[in-house]
């Protein structure tokens, strides 16, 4: 088969390894930009601004997740690692999507099922590359797949259990519209039947809209008939599971994520002790409201993964004390109106950085929040130093940018690591 690997980053490398394992395949690599990873020797490479328009002669074009199918011109079939995995995976798949909370919820689901004695594979952005481990999966295993809108764009099969978390305006730098973004998310349930399950955030209009069109058994969270919080405890219907203090990650939004995880595992196991252990053992993911250090009575938290306004809002609501928040970065087409309004309800000072600084500032002015500073061409160590000077003992400093990281940083991990390094460099008074 003549195959083009369209887009050659980390996922492209995985795609190449998978298809190159069959010696009968004739493979080429196509990318509009010079790749950051080393190209395999002896392979045809198609490059340049129109690279994806030159794939007419291929039987199969395997796109990387962030490459829109509409940008590819071919006479063959447009495919993806996600489609290949879903087509060939012998095990049950639990898929998790949403604008925020995917990694945490997927990790909680995986942790609970491991405690219940299941062999679990966590794949997607939060776990291993799906095609790298496909050959190791047995039919009795369970796969937890964190699914972005990019992976769901052209999906041709749905998971047995689909989880749709909070959805908000995001990735409009890649998607043509909010409608296209939500439509991609909705594909997680497109091929589900009445034998499948859809767990959805019933307080979110987009998730609720997706549930209305689903053929699956739709379970909205949180709900008194399923997983919910009551009197400081997690319950499933009337069955007490454990104290909310068993959950070792902060933030009210994470109680919702835990309820979504409980609902997702319930069709597989209702082992209450295993659910409690799974919640208790999860210590959080890097760069997700991760405590860095306390300096002069001020606590510093790295929430670099917060690339949406609602994520920053959730971080603000987590702390009641005086706050300094670092906002801004590169654009994902987000609307900052609600975030700006939320800032007016907190004792908070904001530092704005990156391409989105002006847009956030404009939203803040419209909302009547004026306690912000814009730093042009910032270095993170200087941003941290300014945040330290603005902070008060007993307060917190939050890196919760509500924006993507590109331009100023390699990615959100680099942004968080630089923030943590800046915090560690602070000297006590």
Give a nutshell description of this structure.
The chain is an alpha/beta fold. The chain has 14 helices and 20 strands.
Strand segment count: 20
Major β-sheet annotation: 6 strands, parallel
Rg, please?
A: 22 Å
Distance between the termini: 66 Å
Helix content: 25-40%
Beta-strand level of the residues, as a percent range? 15-25%
DSSP helical segment count = 14
- CATH top level class name of the largest domain: Alpha Beta
Characterization of this structure:
This protein has 429 residues and is an alpha/beta fold. The protein folds into 3 domains: 2-75, NAD(P)-binding Rossmann-like Domain (Rossmann fold); 83-281, UDP-N-acetylmuramoyl-L-alanine:D-glutamate ligase; 290-424, Mur ligase, C-terminal domain (Protein-Tyrosine Phosphatase, Chain A), CATH 3.90.190. It is 31% helix and 22% strand. The strands form 4 sheets. The chain has a 6-stranded parallel β-sheet, with helices on both faces. Strands 15-16-20-17-18-19 form a 6-stranded mixed β-sheet, with helices on both faces. Strands 3-2-1-4-5 form a 5-stranded parallel β-sheet. The N and C termini lie far apart (66 Å). The relative contact order is 0.09. The model has no long low-confidence stretch (mean pLDDT 96).
